Each structure stands twice: as structure tokens, then as C-alpha cells.
TrEMBL record:
SMART domains: HTH_MERR
Organism domain of life: Bacteria
Domain HTH merR-type, first and last residues per copy: 41-93
Protein name as annotated: MerR family transcriptional regulator
Organism (species): Microbacterium marinilacus
Keyword terms: DNA-binding
Signal peptide from the UniProt entry: none
CDD domains in alphabetical order: HTH_MerR-like
Amino acid sequence: MAAAAAREPASARKAPAGLLSIGQVLAKLTPDFPALTSSKLRFLEVQGIVTPQRTASGYRKFSTDDLERLRLALTLQRDHYLPLVVIRDYLDEVDAGRSPAMPQVPPPSIHPAVRRRTRQELLSAAGAAPQLLNDAVSTGLLKAADHYDDQALALLRALVALDRHGIEPRHVRGMRQSAEREVALVESAMSALLRRTDAASRAKASELAPELAARLDDVRGILVKEALGRLLS
């Protein structure tokens, strides 16, 4: 974490009065949440948990309210096992001045309900322009549908954030092919398990697949960070 902060330009590390950089937020939160990383912070932003300010250069700057919102969200996720969509709705209610009851983990269901949104509801929830969604569909990042799930919402929110900096869906269309190649690597690594039909092997494969995907994500993140370091040096 210290090394990452050292590579951050001085202009980015020096936050306006009362605002914190990513490194400062991590320094305050990682004692209680050791697994927290800058990537996780960015993911929480994409999920709508927090919306930091941006400097003219595009660096994130967090207020004390952002910090407490993050602390509460991470606590709810760690101690109450709540999904982020439930946490976000709860925090939005608190921010609106209401006093919502503490959300509870819904009982397990063989057929859990999946929230579906119409096109207009998706655009509204993501804060996206219709053309951005059209571009996401035409480039293959999203599939055209009558209703969209939470994963589609998370992706569109990420595209909205990128679009603010001139990165359009057409610029990241290759990431779909890259994702498919990574899945092929995971499938190859688990080929022995996938050939088995017993429940134990299938359960182990279900646990192993996300773990392998996370490690591939770590590798990609490190390579991107190294490339950014060369760019900014």
C-alpha cells in the first residue's frame, strides 16, 4: 500500500482540505478491513456504494461522509453477509434522512428472486444516456433484452464512469474476448473436476472457479498497475 501511494503523483496525494486520497482511505480502513484494496474501493464505487469527487486530473477524492459510508457498508457486508445491492439501498435511505430498519439476510431459496429492470429502469438506475446503452449492446458488451439484471446494471454503471473520461464501449469491446479467454483457462484448469458427475466434484468446481478467476483478475490488475506506473513515471 505504501509503495502504491509512493507511485501516486504528488498532485494526486495532496487532497484538498477535508478530502482524502485512495491511499489515505485505505490507511484509515484497512486496520478494520485487512482485505480492502484500491480495486475493491473502485468496485464499491461502481456498485453505487460511494461516489467520490474527482480532481481536474480525474483522481478520486473522498469526503469524511464517504469514509463513514464505506465503513458502514464494509461492516454490513462482513458482519451481516448482506449483498451490496441491499446495502446500497439501505445507505440511500439513511442519506435521504429516513430511519430504515436494519436489513436482514433473506432466507435461502431454491429459486431465489432475481431483480429485473426494464430498459428505462436500467438507464435511470445507472444514470446512463440511451445512446450509451445502445453502444454497449452494439459492441457486444450487453445483450439487448426486455429486462436486465443486477449484473447488467453494474456493467452499465462502470461504462458510465468510463464514458465521463472519454472511454467509450467501442474502446473496451476487446475485454469481452479477453474474458472469454480467461474462462477458457479456468475451464482447462478444472477439466478433471468437470469430467466428474458426482456432487462433491461439482461443488468443488463451483468453489474453485471464482477463486481462479479472482487470481487472474489479480494478475491483470498488477500488470495494468505496472503499465500505469511506467506511464506516470
